[in-house]
Amino acid sequence: MATLLVETTVLPAASPIRQLASWLGPNDLPYSLPIHPNLVHFTIGLFVIAIAFDIAGALFPVEKRLFRFLALPITRAGFHNVGWYNLLACAVVSFFTVAAGFFEMLLAVPIPGVTSSIGLQSMETMLWHGVGGVAILLAIITMTVWRGYQRFLWRRDMGRQVQWLYLLVGLGLFLVIGLHGTLGAELAAEFGVHITADQLLATGVDLHDALP
C-alpha cells in the first residue's frame, strides 16, 4: 500500500520584507536617512538648470547687449553646453533616483488608517508615485535623446541648438514633476514613511522619552 507523504509548510507570520528587520535602523532603512528624497531634488535641480540654460541660449539675441554691458564673456554656445550636460547628468542620476525610491518603498511602513489630502490611502499613493516615477524617468530619457539629436544632427550648425517645442515640453514637464512630487511629499508628511518621529507621534508616544 502506497503511503502518501504530505509536506506541511509553515508560512511566516510577518511579511517577508520584515525578515530584514534585524539590519534596519530607526527609520526602517539600512542607513540613517532616506536617499531617495535627496536624489529627487538633485534630479529636479539638474533638469531645471538644463531647461533654464537652454531657454537663455534660445533668447541670447535679446540678452547679449546686457551681457556686453556687464562685460560678461558669455556665449550662446556656452548656455547650450550647460543645458546639454545638465540634462545628460539628469538622465543618469534619474536611474538611481527611481531605483532608490523603489527600494525604500519596499521597506515602507506607513501609518495605518490615514487618508491623504487628495483622498488616497498609503498603498494607492505609493503605487501612483512609483508608476509616475518610472513615467518621468522615461520622459527624461526621451528628452535627452531628443536634445542629443538637436545638438549633434538637426541643429548642429545653428546658433539656437533647441527647438521651441522642446522648450515648451520641458516647461510642461516642470508642472508634471511638481504634481508628482506632491505624492512623495504626502508619503512623508501624512503617512510618516521612513520618519521615526511621525511614527512615534501617531502611536501617542512622548518623543522626549522615546528619542535619545
Set out the fold topology.
Layout: H1 36-58, H2 60-69, H3 76-106, H4 122-154, H5 164-189, H6 196-202, H7 207-210
Helix pairs in contact: 1-3, 1-5, 3-4, 4-5
Structure description:
With 212 residues, the chain is mainly alpha-helical. The chain has one domain (31-202). The protein contains 7 helices and no strands. It has helices at 36-58, 60-69, 76-106, 122-154, 164-189, 196-202, 207-210. It is elongated, with a radius of gyration of 24 Å. The termini are far apart. Mean pLDDT is 85; it is low at 1-12.
Give me the count of strands: 0
The helix/strand order is HHHHHHH
Q: Strand portion, in percent? A: under 5%
Average pLDDT score = 85
Determine Rg (CA atoms, Å): 24 Å
Low-pLDDT stretches: 1-12
Tally of alpha and pi helices: 7
So what's the overall shape?
A: elongated
Structural class determined from secondary elements: mainly alpha
User: How many domains in all?
Assistant: 1
Structure summary:
Helix content is 63%, strand content 0%. It has seven helices and no strands.
Sum up the structure in keywords.
212 residues; mainly alpha; elongated
